[in-house]
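hey can u check if this looks right to u? its 400 residues, i copy pasted from the old doc so theres a chance i mangled smth
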Amino acid sequence: MAETWIEVDLDAVVKNYQEIVKLLHPETRCMAVVKADAYGLGAVEVARSLARAGCEAFAVTRVEEGLILREHGIVGLILVLGPTTEEEWPRAIAAQLQLTLSELSSIAELNKVCSVMGSEQSTLVQVHLKVETGMGRTGFRFSELEALSHVLDQSPHLQVTGVYTHFARAARKDRAYTLDQYQRFTSFTARLGELGINPTWKHVCNSAAFLDYSEWHHDFVRIGTLLIGHYPGQGFKGKLKLSDPWIAKSRIVHLRKVPKGTYVGYQSIYRTKAETQLAVIPVGYADGFGTGPHFTPQGWADFLRLVIKNFVALFGIFLGLERVELKGKTVRIAGKIGMQLTVLDVGMQECSLGDEVEIPLRRTVANPRIPRRYRQDGQMFSERVMEEGVLPFYKEYSLE
């Protein structure tokens, strides 16, 4: 029996997908972003459930992520958003993954690999052009358009299927930067048309832009954050009804009653204020518990929140980590979180060894070795059972 595990409600993911689809234009489809193992939920299981619900397109960052989906029966469009390498291309082409082009130097080599794999034009790879409009990461600039057109003319094995960009500030209230990015995108695509390049699909909206810029939905919206039950920011709450599919749990493996004044943990920063019970759960930093991404303050108010959070930590009060629940009641973390063990001050409430505790474990930093248990249609499946095909593979979808 696992002492720490994660429960993923696939029905909740599907409900989020269905809520998203309701807001789409008739000609627009949802491209489910299942990168980073579907933000920790499990890319294969999430993609299978979404495919059964009608989702026809998926996006990942790396070729290996797309190959895993193919190997587990996911069909239809799979777009690799990140840069790829020559070593990865043969397997990506064989698996019919759609690749992103974002630099001129790789185009001729990709075409050459396709020509070696087939004869004449029998081997094609569908590609999407990434446009750099203000993210500052990857993508073609307007000044490269003529050169891009020339090299594509010399690459008969590449089929330009899509063109897209990525917004840097779509979650902010100030719309000026995002409007400027979109204007650059439209200028880019207009010039592409003049040069005789007419991609089948356009897509620009991430989760935030999907909610705030419905006029830009185009052929696809790329949705990741909303599918896993998160809003892109506080200002988006209420714009869409979301279900949270994620619950992380652990079990009490040690329980002891201690007197008032007992010191707990490294540096003895926590001291019990009354007679209480200390419960140990087998989860810590190595599992992603108590860790999170680095956030840059967005204004003075955000900066003050970070300062206050760090200040009160000096007194053993960890804001944001206190939502540990035992039998429906919130309990405190006693002292510092350890590498693989954490102590809880559970008071004098009735509890015993083996009792379940819900813990606030971030999806994207949760250790992938923690077992995932999936709930769907009223049944619970383990990851191993699902991979062996207890849940059916789904019919092939055509995007024609």
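Confidence is low (pLDDT under 50) at residues 384-400.
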